[in-house]
Amino acid sequence: MDATDSPAPKFRRRADARPDEVLDAAIALFAEKGYAATTVQEIATRAGLSKGAVYLYFPSKAAILEGLVERAISPVAQTALSHISSFSGDPRPLIAQILRMFAARLRDADLLAVPRIIIHEAVAAPEIAQMYRRAVLDKAVPALTTLIAKGVEGGFIRKVDPEMTVRSVVGPILVHVMLDEVFDLKPKGGLQIERLIDNHLTILLAGLAPEKDGVS
Questions:
Q1: Domain that holds residue 22
Q2: CATH number assigned to the domain comprising residue 191
Q3: Residue 10: its pLDDT value, please?
Q4: CA distance 146 to 193
């Protein structure tokens, strides 16, 4: 049998699928061993690739982690930013929509694994914190600040400090995840992120409501 008669291979890995294979292998290993203890060679082996092939797509381990952030978190952030940029009127319903959207996405274990890794590794590796800040926070925080400032100007929410209010919006969610991940302090039934969001919104939206007849 000559080469033309050889049966086609049962499986041929598509080149455009390889970055996702690397990211899938990386997130599994980061969750098992931690970011610092995982090597690029281990990621390559888990993905079924050579180390050199991994470097074709990601020049460093840090770039792999950034790729995970881009794949898991950035699409959610971009959706939120697109809603914010085109929004006018009372910002409270949009804030609630965005927080509930994040809660729904965080039910995905693969997506939740990324902020978990960031929380565990950022203190020991400041470059990870800076990467996450560039990819997510430097875009989201100014947009939310502007949204709240417009709400104050329009009389839709009371006169609050927009910058500090953004921290009040996102802070409880961050602390909730940290209590679970760092201190192993869990609510009954697990992380219960949607329960936290519902409770947070009850308090937050009441606190943002505009004053009536001079009564705060």
A1: 14-60
A2: 1.10.357.10
A3: 34
A4: 26
